[in-house]
Amino acid sequence: MEHLTFDYPAQRAVTTRAHVGVVGSGDLEVLLSPADQAGALAAHVVVRTSVDGYSHIWKSVLDRFFTRYDGAAQIEINDFGATPGVVALRLAEAVEAAEQGDDA
């Protein structure tokens, strides 16, 4: 089991929570919530994965995601061997769910 952390700059506050996906064979869950510190403009990502030795792949996927996403959020990813495509999909779903929560 590997535990990775990443930090990215952000431009806007996230105000709602989102939970997408499930931890199961070949999948993962993403939990997105507002940043821990009020006024902090950064995203903090914690990845817990069952697959060791792929931190460079995680960094690449998250780097690409954060070129488009600018929310100050706490993101937890619990992985059970998902592919990079599934990771990108679940992150996009979490953002969409959180943004729909803002409109409700």
TrEMBL record:
<dbReference type="InterPro" id="IPR009662">
    <property type="entry name" value="Malonate_deCO2ase_dsu"/>
</dbReference>
<dbReference type="Pfam" id="PF06857">
    <property type="entry name" value="ACP"/>
</dbReference>
<dbReference type="GO" id="GO:0005737">
    <property type="term" value="C:cytoplasm"/>
</dbReference>
<dbReference type="InterPro" id="IPR023439">
    <property type="entry name" value="Mal_deCO2ase/Cit_lyase_ACP"/>
</dbReference>
<protein>
    <recommendedName>
        <fullName>Malonate decarboxylase acyl carrier protein</fullName>
    </recommendedName>
</protein>
<keyword id="KW-0963">Cytoplasm</keyword>
<keyword id="KW-0597">Phosphoprotein</keyword>
<feature type="modified residue" description="O-(phosphoribosyl dephospho-coenzyme A)serine">
    <location>
        <position position="25"/>
    </location>
</feature>
